Amino acid sequence: MRGFHIIKTRSIDLNNAHGLAMESRLEKSVEPTGYRLELEPYLEDAMYKGHVTINVTWLEDSHTINVHCGHDIEITETEMQAYLSSESEELNTIPIKRVTVDLKKPIALIRLEKTVPKSTRGFIKFSFKGNMQTATTEAFFKTSYSTEQEVERIVAGTQLRPNNARRMFPCFDEPAYKTPFELSVVRPRDMVALSNVPVARTEDINDEPNAVWDHFERTPPMSTFTLGLVIADLKQFGSAIHYEDENGNNIEIRVWGRPEFIEMLEGLNEKVAQVFSEVANFWQVPLPLRRLDIVALPNYQGVKPADNWGLIVFKESDLTSRGYLQMSQELSYQWLGALVTPAWWSDAHLNKALVGYLAAEIAFKINNGSEMEGKWPMTVLYSLYYEFSKRYPHSRITGMKQETACTKIELLFRMFNYTIGGDTFRKGMRKFIESRKFKTFTGDDIWNALNEAALADGKIPKDINIKTVATSWIEKDRLPVITVKRNYETNTAFVTQKVYLRERPHDLPSSNKMLWSAPLVVCRSDRLSFKNFTPSSWIRHADLNLLNMPDEKHFIIVNPEEIAPFPVNYDQDNWNLISEYLQSENRVNIPELTRAKLLHDAWNLAYAGELSFATAFNMTLFMEHERNHLVWDPVFTMIDHIGRHLCPCIVDKFRAYVRSLLTPLYNEMVRDGKDDGDNRRKSLFSLTKTFLCQVGFKPCIIEAQEQFNNWMQAPNPDEGNPISNQYICPVFKWGTQKEWDFGLQRVINFPPSRKQSERTYLLKTLAGCPVDEKKIEKLLNITILEGNGNFTETDLFLIFSMLTGNSQGYTTLFYFLNNNWDVLKEKFRSKTNIWDNMITSATSQFTTKTGMNLVAIMYDNHKGEFGSAEHIIEKSLRNIREEAKWSEENIPVIEEWLNYYLSRTGVKDDQAFVAN
């Protein structure tokens, strides 16, 4: 009895198909010119049958043909026909010797009985069977959900990006093979089938009254991974959007969801219409589609939407979000990714970077980027600054490397948009996409199109090439720091570039050979303007001179608005001029992103040893009157980074400085009312309060203790935490031993029925927050020496990690290790992972000569006893030596500045909390 296409679900275990082997490029003996694909899903059994006819043309004389075919696909029949001469209209069957599937790669090899000559046209026909994916929503998948009436519904769909078409049917699954598709699919009569193009006709099936064939129109030429299909119980939301413009777009846009979810999509049509209009207006090259369907698919689990051409499949939660960023990305992929396609997987990061940049620009244009709190590109740029300034970027993690490479290119597009101007940038992009539509592209195609537009509009010097500029950034996992030293007698500036390194030591191999092509945009206070971003010059070599600079009364700012991803250092006088201007009421003439940059650059350069900390701290003086959240953002990072690096000898002075810095902002926000619906203001208030709590702000600690007391008075405190997490760390840090002991008991007694993430948070704060060594010692004694059974090895790793966050933590751990050496060595003799982690956490964080001496004495006393951790403590000593040099040079400067600041401001500091 053959299975019907109408369905009730049952659970089926499937073997996952093999992933893409990057070396599995097909031999180019033939190329596809069209697909006729028929699919018959049997949703009850999570399997399907199919037939595909592939039009092919021989590129060379050959008796073999390679096609992609996943190992889950069973080819049941193969047939080959061809017109054996260009004049012939008669199809001839080409005998097939055998079809074999590579056991290691998803490739099927067809061997023919005879050689077919070059330029021959023909057809390959496959009949095949396959299993739908049920463990993931990849390839051709099946999932299910329950309605409000607890009726189970089945959903079928595809996610073929980047290389999953081969897991659905035999095909030429490479981006460059762009061909039309004709798809026919069987669906239950009471469900909807959607694909890249509208249904041309629907056909009944004999003996199956509840199922029909949907035959879809012929698609434009496209890559296999943009083929899409959804079969589900869907309802259209509202009326279709009809978008037509003078550029040739004439498209119907429809939004779909399950009937119970439709009301959640209120307002989505307007959002889609607005974003589509912006994206279409940017490209001004029409989409060759009559229809675009956007689907909120129940139980779709993809990390990102399935952006098929003409059919975008979202998680339901994604389509109910208020932001515009993701929608902008997905609609941009309809042009960049579908109409034009990366030539190979290695070019995909360029596609993602450009789409990411355009989406951010559109989101800002529509609502000022409110979902990113207006912080783009700050957040991604500062992350790059930190990552690329490490001795070993990415910690050698490939996935992170790919993400940062993509982010850097996204910022390069932003740089070019600024430096050649938005009009020229758009002209280049439109020329690029017009020239590559229905084709693939590489980075060269983009850079060359931008270069031609920039030269034509006179936006770059003739000796500057945008491809060369871009390459100088893309090929390095580093960023430059530009140093500008002015000569006030000659009104010139000497500009140099070198690798930007924060993490010591700075002896990076070949660093002196690294050079970037970077635009030098200069703003000057004698004619202050932030509207013209044409570079004064482009630095390509190690140095250059800038002429016609202003006199000694006026500052300059290089690289305003973070136009290019590099920090800038200046001579002392120029820093002073900027600092004085920022402390005046005229500071608002400098945009907030540039104010943030100046602050961020200053303290990071000081941290890297390139600038005096006195200058960096002077740059924070204007914050007394600053209220913009963008400018405060780097201040909080500075407090965290610098605070971790200070020795206990001046930490109280630093905390007093932070309280003095933040208290006016906090008091003003409390007075004005903080709950006004503005997320940016809420976020600023929350950060202000958090950092004040960290440095012992009395009102904060008292409030936290009052809230914590509610928990301590609860009749059953282990049933749950009745207070907000924000109150826990301040109490454990500044509160009593009794309060901390209460928290410890909650971890020990933690019921298994509660979420483990709550226990983890509690343990993190117990270890990482206290400033009292006695609390930390007690935790170490209980968890390690006493071996309390309520604590696992994972808990120990967490505790060690948290203790590295402040000097009290790692110093207490060091003495604990030193005082209990023999016991601990024996205890962890066979557990080298814990031993190594403890040695790392106890020895690697010291930053002073005193700390170096402590670790050196331990090393000498126990040389040869460290076992697997011998290399760890040796590395710790090398690093501490560098950090001690830093501290020796900078701590006295910081202390002197703090003394001056605290005496000058007359800080009474009556808001300082005294720990119990």
TrEMBL record:
A Pfam family: Peptidase_M1
Locations listed in the record: Cell membrane
Residue ranges that the Swiss-Prot or TrEMBL entry lists as coiled coil: none
Entry cofactors: Zn(2+)
GO process terms (BP): proteolysis
Cofactor remark from the record: Binds 1 zinc ion per subunit.
The protein's Enzyme Commission number: 3.4.11.-
Source organism, top-level taxon: Eukaryota
Matches recorded under InterPro entries: Aminopeptidase_N-like_N, Aminopeptidase_N-like_N_sf, ERAP1-like_C_dom, M1_APN-typ, Peptidase_M1, Peptidase_M1_aminopeptidases, Peptidase_M1_dom, Peptidase_M4/M1_CTD_sf
TM region(s), chain numbering: none
Gene3D superfamilies, alphabetized: 1.25.50.20, 2.60.40.1910, Neutral Protease Domain 2, tricorn interacting facor f3 domain
Residues annotated as catalytic: E330
Group of enzyme by EC: hydrolase
Aminopeptidase N-like N-terminal domain location: 32-225
Sequence ranges assigned to domain Peptidase M1 membrane alanine aminopeptidase in this UniProt record: 270-473
Molecular function GO terms recorded: aminopeptidase activity; metallopeptidase activity; zinc ion binding
UniProt domain ERAP1-like C-terminal: residue ranges: 555-881
Membrane topology per record: Lipid-anchor; GPI-anchor
PANTHER family linked: FI02158P, PROTEASE M1 ZINC METALLOPROTEASE
Family: Belongs to the peptidase M1 family.
Name this polypeptide is given: Aminopeptidase
